[in-house]
Amino acid sequence: MGILRKLFRATPIPTIDGAFSPSPLAIKLGTSPTTDYDGGFYATPYTGSKNRVLMICTEVRNMTMANGKKFSTGNHPVEMGLPMLHLMNAGFVIDVVTPTGAPVSIEDWAMPADDADVKRLYRDYADAFAKPGNLADFVASKMDEAVSYAAVYIPGGHGAMLGLPENTDVGKALHWAHERDLITLALCHGPAALLAAKTENGFLYEGYKMTVFPDSVDKQTPMIGYLPGPMPWWVCEKLTALGVQITNTKADASCHVDRRLVTGASPKAANSFGRLAAETLLKNVS
Fold first, then answer.
1. What share of the chain is helix, strand, coil (3-state, %, to 5)?
2. pLDDT number for residue 8
3. CA angle, corner 154, sides to 179 and 200, nearest 5?
4. Which of 80, 104, 116, 163 ranks highest by number of CB atoms within 10 Å?
C-alpha cells in the first residue's frame, strides 16, 4: 500500500506544525485553480437596515483523526468565499467572528490560485480574517440589542467540526437567529456547528431536512490521502441521530431550504448555495 501511495502521490503532506495536508493526488482530484462563480449579479440589491450577516468561522487549525494523526484544516476558501461574494453583491455586509476573536483558520491548500474574484476577496478581507470579532463578546454584550442582522452564516471546511459544535455561544447565536426569524446558512461541513443548538430541551433543528457533506465520502477520502486517517466522528451520523433528514447522498451541488435554514452539500455547491442564500435573504428580509 505504501508503494502504491508513493506511486500515485497519495501520501498526505506533513506540515511544519506536525499535521498533514492533503496529498498531491487529493489536491488534484478535490480542488481546482478556478471556481464556477457566476459573477453574483443581482438586479435589485438590498438597501434596508437589516443588512448584516454574522459569519461564524473556526479558529482551530488541526483535527486529530481517529488514528491520532492531525489534519491541517480550517474553513474552505471556496465554500466561504463564493457565498460571501454573492451576499455582498446582493447588498449585505459580512461581520467575521470566531469563538474567541482568534484569527480565522483557512485551508490555504484549497485556495483557487487562478480565480481573480476569490483572490481579491481574500486580499480585501485579510485584516478581518486576521483580527475577527469575538463571538463570546457579541453574545454577552451585543446580541440582544443587535437589530441590523439578516442572517447567521457558518461556512464549510472540516474546520467547522472543530470548536463550534460544542460551543455554547454558537448555540446561543443559533437560538437567537431562530427566535428573531433570521436566516441561518450552513454549507458542506458547516452544519456540524448546528449541533451546538442542542440543549436539555431538545435539538433546535429536529425534523429539518438538510444537505450536508456525506459521511460515506469522508470515509473514502483517506484512500487518496485527502485525510491522514479516519474521521474522529461523523457529521451526518450525529445530525441524523438528532432527528435531521439528510436529503443528499453525494458530495454534489445540491442545496436545500427548510423554513429559514439554507444548507448546501459540498464545495461543488458553493456558487449555487451562495446564490440561493442571497436570493433567500432578498426575498425574506424587509
1. 40, 20, 40
2. 52
3. 50
4. 80
Helix (H) or strand (E) holding 96: strand 93-98
C-alpha separations of 109 from 30, 33, 219, 235 in Å = 11, 11, 21, 22
pLDDT of residue 6: 59
- Band (5; pLDDT cuts 50, 70, 90): low
Strand 202-203 and strand 20-21: pairing? unpaired
Contact predicate 25/41, CB 8 Å: no
Q: Measure Cα distances from 148 to 83, 109, 115, 136 in Å.
A: 19, 35, 32, 18
The CA distance from 269 to 281, in Å, is: 18
pLDDT exceeds 90 at position 157: yes
Position 1 scores a pLDDT of 45
- Which pLDDT value is given to residue 119? 96
Confidence bin at 4 (pLDDT 50/70/90): very low
265/84 Cα distance (integer angstroms): 17
78 near 117, Cβ under 8 Å?
no
In the block, which residue shows the cell 425574506? 284
Dihedral Cα 197, 200, 201, 204, nearest 10 deg: 10
Q: Where are the alpha helices (DSSP H) in the chain?
A: 2-7, 24-30, 77-89, 116-124, 126-130, 135-137, 168-179, 215-220, 235-241, 270-284
- The residues carrying an active-site annotation are 188
At 250, the amino acid letter reads: K
CB of 284 closer than 8 Å to CB of 208: no
Mean per-residue pLDDT, 129-137: 98
pLDDT digits (tens, 9 = 90+) for 24-65: 999 999 999 999 999 999 999 999 999 999 999 999 999 999
194: which 3 cell numbers? Answer: 448546528
